[in-house]
Amino acid sequence: MAYQTLLVDDQNATRIITLNRPQALNAFNETLKDELIDALKNAARDKTVRCLVITGAGRAFCAGQDLKDRDSSAPVSFSASLRDKYNPMITSIRTMDKPVIAAVNGVAAGAGCSLALACDLRVVADKATFIQAFVKIGLVPDSGATFFLPRLVGMGKALELAFTGDPLDAETAEALGVANSVVPGETLLTTTMDLANRLAQAPTRAIGLTKRAMNRAILVDLPSALDYEADMQEIAGRGPDFTEGVSAFREKREPHFTGQ
Ligand code: LHQ
To answer: Distance from the CA of 171 to the center of ligand 1, in angstroms?
Structure first.
């Protein structure tokens, strides 16, 4: 499949998937979601691929759902959008029997932040930020954010980030264990590829089994958590604060939430 919104490049046994809608900060439109699901499936089943790197083109990693794409920014069913598109991406990353590294080149917001959190490791550019942007548009953290974030940073910090939508900078992300390492933006890809090539030469079968065992040790409830998030998002997405939040984003103004 030739992709319109992704670049896929193999370097030795490492596959690099680059989200490629830089003009929209790599926000997820329907095409990007469909293509990423397909690319993840291919990477999972291709035995020549022994490590996967996910990164973004331009200055952002991914700004989450495309809020200007009128076909999908207010889907008919939020829960269906999550169950059919976002949750399969997250599940695919977690169930892939090979290491997945996010090379977080810039801002990772909303479902883009969730995508980075679902990866096994995060190598982060010094100017990158992680933003639980959902609350800014009256939504609930989704695509696994309610599941991965408290496991990475603890409940108190996770709730603070989710309630405020304040950016988590790279240095703090490293201190909290969200970033495995922080490097200057110019060296992000070379540093990530050094790690990826090392992991791609490691015993992939053992690494895959290690990932399965860790998933089982602390991520066994992921399917029900993804399902529950979808239900919560359906409720939040039907409320007036979501409509106001998206209008405010599009009109570049502060939102006025009623709390209903
Ligand atoms: C964008 C976006 C964007 C479109 C920047 N879409 N254009 C699941 C279920 C169903 C529905 C709803 O959603 C979900 C899951 C989610 O992901 S919800 C969360 C969606 N994402 C957000 O709320 C993040 C929105 N973006 C931002 O808050 C900021 O743009 C960030 C913090 C990412 C970056 O800020 P800046 O560096 O100041 O850049 P900017 O705001 O100036 O954006 C640059 C351009 O990119 C701008 O377009 P323009 O034509 O004015 O240059 C933005 O409108 C566009 N853009 N994010 N998600």
So the answer is: 23
**pLDDT one-digit tens code per residue, 221-260:** 999 999 999 999 999 999 999 999 999 999 999 999 999 9
Cα 207 to averaged position of ligand 1 atoms, centre (Å)? 35
Question: Is the CB of residue 140 below 6 angstroms from any atom belonging to ligand 1?
Answer: no
Task: Report the predicted TM-score, pTM, of the whole model to 2 decimal places.
Answer: 0.98
Beta carbon of 40 within 6 Å of any ligand 1 atom: no
CA–CA dist 65, 2 (Å, integer): 22
Q: Which contacts of 91-94 are long-range, i.e. CB under 8 A and separated by 24 or more positions?
A: 91/222, 91/223, 91/226, 92/37, 92/40, 92/41, 92/44, 93/40, 93/118, 93/119, 93/120, 94/118, 94/215, 94/219, 94/222
Longest Cα–Cα distance of the chain, Å, equals: 54
How far does residue 57's CA lie from ligand 1's centre (Å)?
15
Cβ-defined contacts of 221-224 (< 8 Å, 24+):
221/147, 222/90, 222/91, 222/94, 222/144, 222/147, 223/91
Query: Is ligand 1 within 6 A of the CB of residue 137?
Result: yes
Measured distance CA(74)–CA(51) in Å, rounded: 35
The reported pLDDT for the residue numbered 76 is 78
